[in-house]
Amino acid sequence: MNNFYKINNWNELQKGQKANERTPFIKVHTNLLISKPWFDLDDTTRLIFIELQILGSECMGYLPEDETIAFRIRRPLEQVKEALVKLNEHYISIVDEEAYKKHLELFKKELEDQSQKRKESGRLGGIKKHENAKSVRNDKLNSQADVMKALDSFQAEKDEVIDF
């Protein structure tokens, strides 16, 4: 049976990030500098945890099975397994395959909802932009008509003065 993982406190650590396929950055908190368990880890395991956070950002903190992790972060499988064991106590949790798949389904639904909202707001934005452009055009036409009326009025007054 494959183990799947999730990064503990993902929503707190990456507060404000919306679900999307790949976030451009992750937040690394300064709390790590005062964390005793963090300093008990070797340098390789600490670096792997940062790499896991980057990988986890693709799926709101959930991580695939060991083999996929090793491939994605380009590290030997044994090194990854060893790091996962060390990180399991404080920084990551094991989740079963069913929970992982359920999370993926919810995550995909969230992505689809966001995509639909973007499309809808883009469509509505385009309609609004078109309406605004139309009203600006009408305002310009009205102001041009006002200018023409003023010129005609001025011309009529000028003609009266000249005739007098």
Report on this structure.
66% of the residues lie in helices and 6% in strands. It has 164 residues and is mostly helical. The chain has a domain at 4-95. A three-stranded antiparallel β-sheet has the order 2-1-3. Helix 3 (43-56) packs across helix 5. The N and C termini lie far apart (106 Å).
Order the strands across the largest sheet as they lie in space.
Answer: 2-1-3
Order of helices and strands: EHHHEHHEH
Distance between the termini: 106 Å
Helix content: 55-70%
- Major sheet: size, sense and barrel closure? 3 strands, antiparallel
Radius of gyration: 31 Å
Reconstruct the topology from this structure.
Elements lengths: L3 E4 L2 H4 L22 H5 L2 H14 L5 E2 L2 H7 L4 H12 L3 E4 L1 H67 L1
Helix pairs in contact: 3-5, 4-5
Provide a short characterization of the protein structure.
The protein is mostly helical and 164 residues long.
Features:
164 residues, 3-stranded antiparallel β-sheet, 6 helices, mainly alpha
